[in-house]
Fold this protein.
Amino acid sequence: MTGLPLSAYQADDRSAVKEIQARNMLVVSCMRRAGFTAFDGDGLQAAEAPDNATALPAGAWGYLGADAAAVQGFHPPRRPLPRPAAAPAGSGEAYDNARVDCDRQAAERIGPPQGPGADLVGRLFDASLKAAGTDARVVAATKDWSACMGAAGFAADAPEALPERYRGTAEITPGELAAARADLDCTARSNLAALWFTVLAGYQRQLIDRNAEALTTRREAVRAQDEKLTGLLADGAPPQ
């Protein structure tokens, strides 16, 4: 998904990590100025790339990734939960009030998480997905995929049905892994993934051409926000 044409108008994972780092730096600096000199970032979000739906191997395109099919099935990757840091000694109402105020100041300094124009990009993404889903080429490939899955013993009209079927279970079962392997094989046999992403990218390029002026402004906003985050990190995010 991150390689699709419209992704160029969104903040990438690298920029998302920079935003977390800058926010954490601002909060730590603010808390120490507020008198909590031992504050070292308890409860702050770890500066890691977001674990979002793009980590899932299955979707409308079918299934991608033999390694994931062997161990992950239709569940997202299992990641260890971060261990929360203990609040510093002496924390209480004054600490809580300072923390709320510092979180607010950091959010105001950084600005909106998505920035101007994010709604437009989201709407265009949705429109491209809808168009690709009803495209005759994708519909035909999906039917081939469905017939292949039925022959393998896993009846499903569309690839999205399988993740919904298995994600509700807490544990990954042998049956789920077998379905994932069949999905992987049928995705390759039907050429669904390659076709789906090609068609989707084509619709996105059309939408970009129709919204060129607004998207150019959006791309400049994304670039400016990234430069702002880089500056905050470079100068240690001093107080304004």
Q: What stands out?
A: The chain has a mean pLDDT of 87. Residues 3 and 221 are 19 Å apart (CA to CA).
